[in-house]
């Protein structure tokens, strides 16, 4: 199983999503920024590194928002999504095809990676119940 981390980054009432590059697996699907945890690396460290590499931002990593296991045809992932905030920098597209800030109501307008589906359902559920997302 591949350990993967991702960040749920909010700016007021919108959160960041990133579109995967056309030349990678799950091309042009939307996802939360993040990536694989390297051997000997803490999950939080991996997330900070990935966000520096992919967006040129420094992240403050908060609590775990949710864990998901997902089996793709080519790999099985354990995804840990952290609540996070940008501490320094403005996101730049260093790897992704696009970056967007969307509200929970806009989730159905985008095609996401299958591993993110349970997370998106939870964000939508909390949003519809008026809870802290």
General description of the model:
The chain has 133 residues and is an alpha+beta fold. The chain is built from 2 helices and 7 strands. It is globular.
Structural class assignment: alpha+beta
CATH level-two architecture:
Alpha-Beta Complex
Relevant CATH superfamily = Nucleoside Triphosphate Pyrophosphohydrolase
Quote the beta fraction.
35-45%
Biggest pleated-sheet summary: 7 strands, mixed
In terms of per-residue confidence, which ranges show pLDDT below 50 for 5 or more consecutive residues?
A: none
Query: How is the CATH topology named?
Result: Nucleoside Triphosphate Pyrophosphohydrolase
Number of helices: 2
Number of domains: 1
The residue-averaged pLDDT reads 94
SS elements, strand count: 7
The end-to-end span amounts to 28 Å
> What general form does the structure show?
globular
Quick recap:
The chain is built from 2 helices and 7 strands, in the order ββββαβββα. It has 133 residues and is α+β, with helices and mostly antiparallel strands.
Jot down its keywords.
133 residues, alpha+beta, Nucleoside Triphosphate Pyrophosphohydrolase, 7-stranded mixed sheet, 7 strands, 19% helix, globular
């Amino acid at each position: 199983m591949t350990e993967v981390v991702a960040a749920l980054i909010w700016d007021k009432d919108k959160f960041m999503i990133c579109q995967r590059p056309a030349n990678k697996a799950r091309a042009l699907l939307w996802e939360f920024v993040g990536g694989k945890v390297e051997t000997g690396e803490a999950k939080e460290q991996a997330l900070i590194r990935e966000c520096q590499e992919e967006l040129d931002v420094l992240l403050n990593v908060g609590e775990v928002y949710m864990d998901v296991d997902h089996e793709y045809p080519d790999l099985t992932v354990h995804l840990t999504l952290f609540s996070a905030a940008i501490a320094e920098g403005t996101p730049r597209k260093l790897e992704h095809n696009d970056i967007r800030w969307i509200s929970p109501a806009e989730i159905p307008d985008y095609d996401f990676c299958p591993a993110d589906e349970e997370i998106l359902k939870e964000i939508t559920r909390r949003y519809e119940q008026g809870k802290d997302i």
